Amino acid sequence: LKMSWFWLYLPLHLLTVTCLCHSVKAATTSSQQSFKSNLFNFYHSLILADGKETTIHLLKDIPKRYYFVLEEGRALAPFSITVTPCDVPIEWSILVYKSPPGKAAPGDHDTQEVSKSHKASSMVSTIFNYKGNSVETYMGMSSHSALYLLEFLSTERDTHITVYLTTDTTSGHLYPELPVDPRIDVIGIGHTTVTLAWKHSPSVLQHRESIQYCLLVNEKHNYKSLCAAETAIRSSGMKLPPTLALSLSPYLLEPQQVMILSNSELSIINKVSSGEVRQVCMGTKNTYTVPNLSPSTQYYFDVFIVNLLTNASAAYTGTFARTLEEPEPKMTELKDGKVIHVVLDGKRQKFYSLQYQARHKKIHFTFQLCRGQIRVHITRNGKTVASENLSGLRYFSLKGKLLDTYSVQLRSTEESNSSVKVLASPHFHKPLFPLLPESLKIKSFSKLRTCRSVTIAWLGTQEESKYCVYRKRIEEDQIWRELQSADRCSGPESRHKSEKVLCKYFYDLNLQRAVTTETIKGLEAGTLYLFDVYLFGPSGIPVRYHSKVVKTRKKC
Fold first, then answer.
1. Contact 451/497 with Cβ under 8 angstroms?
2. Is the whole-model pTM more than 0.70?
3. Membrane spanning segments where (predicted)?
4. Contact at 8 Å (CB) between 226 and 277?
């Protein structure tokens, strides 16, 4: 835009109108008010930049106006305006103000001047009007002798939109082009996967290096633009990177976000109240299989084509699909007194079923959680008798009838691997697992720490049992991995001989006094150590206490 020309043009335009208004005595009051209102619109409007995407913030029920003119000397020229609502539906319109006629010829009568006043007030016309939340583009021809006013209004709540005006329609587009058929096709549905395909954008063929496809997956609804999707996720309490294109910067991630990069594909998973929202950018591939979905769940899929240079995007027509129901888990038979070790892959196999037919009225189930998080659900003849999350060693004593059929369903509650040992037996008085104390925590005494020794304590039981203590030197960056990856079902046979400290027997009939302590000596100053205690029962099956990390004093 030539600003000097515009500011010269506008005062002349207003001066002509003002003179005309003062010279007309017989004009009606309504005509004068209408015309003054139009002038007021110009005084309280902003200039809309040409060739640049403008973000506009709207307050509820307060209209906002922008206007533009063409360069001087261009009689007729094409222009286009694209408006993208980023949240709720809005109303917007385009009004055109044409130049008023010149001064009346000498000798004209008052009636001629009144006619001119009516003409002046009727030079405003609405050429476009829209209400909704879709991305809408208006294309038209503009005259240099006309001013264009854009008016935007949000009646639901405060929101923001983006507006793109261009008068150069020959040198390319800010927004990537969509194909003639912009629909997303669902070409495959599984229990935990959905495969999508879409037609290539013409922009990909022309600018392959600066264009990429990005996919948004959520359980709520489809989005008509990328900024609408980002706004919706932010409203759930999330902070997002400005766009999917900028999501390539890992430092922009929030604590509630998980970034996965594999096979040149970037995935960002946002944990929001309405479920997971996944963002996946896959370059210029126009097919994608979405993994790790939940069975029997409806998902909504939106594909956006993003220009990495301008950060502008265009949305394909979104689609949705429902994953298949979870298949019946494989049934394994439990036998009396035989321990079964079940390993669940949190990503592929989340369920595992065991079946047991009672040969006695009383049945005892024992579960030893080895790793991860598992929920157990027990039914007898189809009716639920127990359901809870496992922790450590857990016993269930159930009473029924002979030949009752028990079904035990194990479900992993996290994506990492989980494992558990299961035992079914009618003889609780001959347990394979040891009697456990109230807590499997190991306590350390800070005041008793020295540069060369550490004192720890743990609870025992009323049954004489064997306890073995092991130590392992670790580094700061190994703490989390050691604590998370520990297999609580593994015994000392998996440890190096040099890590063994001692083994001892003890018990106390008074549980309040069933506590033992040990001072481990020969340690190095200012060093981290991981301590483990193993409890052995009558059958020799070990139970591992929760690992404890202690650091010796640096100076004594």
1. no
2. no
3. none
4. no
Establish if 521 belongs to a structural domain.
yes
Same domain, 221 and 190: yes
Q: Are residues 285 and 400 in the same domain?
A: no
pLDDT digits (tens, 9 = 90+) for 54-72: 899 999 999 999 988 766 5
Instruction: Tell me which of 385, 400, 425 is where a domain ends.
Output: 425
State the distance between the two ends of the chain, measured CA to CA, in whole angstroms.
Answer: 76
Number of domains in the chain: 4
d(CA 443, CA 450): 16
Rg of the chain taking only CA atoms, in angstroms: 37
Going through 249-350 in order, the beta strands assigned E by DSSP cover 257-262, 265-272, 275-281, 287-290, 298-307, 313-315, 319-322, 331-333, 340-344
Residue 529, domain extent? 442-551
H/E stretch holding 419 reads strand 418-425
Q: Which of 365, 393, 425 is the last residue of a domain?
A: 425
CA 277 to chain CA centroid, Å, is: 3
pLDDT score recorded for residue 34: 46
Counting residues of the chain whose pLDDT is more than 70, the rounded percentage is 75
Predicted confidence band of residue 144 (pLDDT cuts 50, 70, 90): low
Residue 52 within a domain: yes
Buried b (16+ CB within 10 A) or exposed e, 87-97: bbebebbbbbb
Judge whether 116 lies within some domain.
no
Query: Residue 274 in contact with residue 180, Cβ under 8 Å?
Result: no
If phi over 0 gives left and psi between -120 and 50 gives alpha, with beta otherwise, what is residue 348? alpha
- The SS3 assignment for 184 reads strand
Q: Are residues 322 and 337 in the same domain?
A: no
CATH number at residue 404: 2.60.120.1090
Task: Tell me, yes or no, whether 308 and 188 share the same domain.
Answer: yes
* Confidence grade of residue 498 (pLDDT, cut at 50, 70, 90): very high
Residues 162 and 178 in one domain: no
153 and 191 together in one domain: no
What mean pLDDT comes out for the span 72-101? 80
How does pLDDT run across 263-321, given as a tens digit for each residue? 445 555 554 445 567 888 888 999 999 998 988 899 999 999 988 887 788 999 999 99
Question: Do 418 and 317 fall into the same domain?
Answer: no
Residue 113 is inside which H or E element, if any?
helix 110-121
Residue 462, domain CATH: 2.60.40.10
| pLDDT score recorded for residue 71 | 60
pLDDT, position 14: 40
- Identify which of 423, 402, 316 has the alpha carbon closest to the alpha carbon of residue 359: 402
Separation between Cα atoms, residue 443 and residue 65, nearest integer Å: 69
**Is 13 within a domain?**
no
- For residue 97, give the H/E element and its range: strand 90-98
- 312 in the same domain as 205: yes
**Inter-residue contact 235 to 334 (CB < 8 Å):** no
C-alpha–C-alpha distance, residues 100 and 121, integer Å: 9
- Give the distance from CA 120 to its chain's centroid: 55
- Altogether, the residues listed in the chain come to a count of 556
CB of 69 within 8 A of CB of 9? yes
